[in-house]
Amino acid sequence: MCRAKHVDCVYRQTPEGNFRERLEALQVSHPAAVIYRAIQTRPEAEVQEIVRRIRAGADAETIARQLSTADLLLRVHLEPETRCRY
């Protein structure tokens, strides 16, 4: 309908849509969700290390921060050099 009139479509977000966005943001940022997702997706050796840290008494925020830092370091390490050298 908006396209036919050549105007920008503007939609108001429903409370359900707003809730869904907040839930998705929480799943990305909440330490327990980060750890849970890592346990689901990481190789077995990494999962064992995560569980070892949990059993050793490390708090969820520290483990989640370590996982994020490791991911960033790995990304930086794996990105190819894009500058030209002459």
From TrEMBL:
**Source organism (scientific name):** Gibberella nygamai
Report the superkingdom from the record.
Answer: Eukaryota
Phylogenetic lineage: Eukaryota, Fungi, Dikarya, Ascomycota, Pezizomycotina
Q: State the name under which the record lists this protein.
A: Uncharacterized protein
